[in-house]
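Throughout our pipeline, every protein is held as a single compact record rather than as scattered files. The record that follows is passed on verbatim for readers who wish to inspect the format:
___
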Amino acid sequence: MFIPGKEYRRGYIHDKYGGNRQSGISPSRKVDTIFLFTGETGEQYGYEDGWNADKSAFYYSGEGIEGDMEFTHGNKAIRDHVLTGKELYLFRRTRKGYVEFVGQMVCTECQTKSGRDYHGNERTVIVFTLTPIEQFALQDPTDEDLGERQAQESYSIEELRKAAYASAVPTADVRETRAQYYTRSKAVSDYVKARAAGTCEGCGKRAPFTTRAGNPYLEVHHIRRLSDAGPDDPAWVAALCPNCHRKAHHSHNANEYNVDLYRKIQEKEAGQSQ
């Protein structure tokens, strides 16, 4: 949708995707996205946004120019974005009317601290810790991972399904670590690949090759969700061959393809639950 480091006219973003043109936190009603805008102008309202030392996290102040900040409206939308399936897109103001796309983020923590409002009065300020989505992406499996995957084969599909659904239960705890997130995501991945049984759930063809551990190679695709980077209801996750995976993301009819794919997975899950 957007390219990191590229400058966009803010009006263009709202013309195409909707959202409040003035607010720093701008949920869209057209797409499952919350647009976040940061810049020096926020300092006059007591906002102090910015990266931590190693740029692994961005601290983003909540909305509200006077009085205590509360978890309502935009602040609530950020805090609960994983629960509601909304993506967070962060932009930085560059010049009048223009913003630079920083990247897609995940809210991993929210905390409160003392600060000042627009009138200089002391108040409670909400600060969100936003982590780049890339930090949650699953890496290519190592030899150790492949060995562990072989061990998973000793579990029945019923056991894997139970673990996947337990792991996919949404949590309001935004302090979840990358390790915890990875573990929950892996449980879903293991089950979905077992459900596919070596056959692409998109085109119905056998996996194009086997891994070094001798397992059929299929990629996990999240039909909805923040990206292919975390746990989700297994009824919204498919195991696809690389070609179908790219089709689900980049084809001209990707939306229609994903709707059809969702229907297929719903039917398979209904069969698994019987």
Observations:
- The chain has two domains: 7-135, 138-272.
